[in-house]
Amino acid sequence: MGNVKSIEKAVESLPRSELAEFRHWFAEFDAAAWDKQIEQDASSGKLDSLAAEALADYRSGSAREL
Questions:
Q1: Which of 25, 52, 54, 60 gets the most CB atoms within 10 Å of its CB?
Q2: How far apart are CA 20 and CA 37, in angstroms?
Q3: Contact at 8 Å (CB) between 10 and 21?
Q4: Which residue, 49, 30, 27, 47, is CA-closest to 39?
């Protein structure tokens, strides 16, 4: 059985309280991974064109402040 399938089976067999604990842990784990990816993309310049486009739209009046 593949690693993912064995993890799925383990998660499916968790009691409610442990499933809630796992959900909390996974949400934090996933958010940290997302933050790390965004930081890497920002520092590598991948987001520069998007930021420039957003600023140009804002300065031209095509966008508004939230």
A1: 54
A2: 26
A3: no
A4: 47
What is the tens place of the pLDDT at every residue in 11-20?
999 999 999 9
CA 57, CA 66: separation in Å to the nearest integer? 14
**C-alpha to C-alpha distance for 27 and 34, rounded to whole angstroms:** 10
Q: Token pair 């409610």 is at which residue? A: 16
The CA R_g of the chain, rounded to the nearest whole Å, is 20
- List the domain boundaries for the chain: 15-60
CA 43 – CA 53 distance, rounded (Å)? 17
SS3 for the chain is CCHHHHHHHHHHCCCHHHHHHHHHHHHHHHHHHHHHHHHHHHHHCCCHHHHHHHHHHHHHCCCCCC
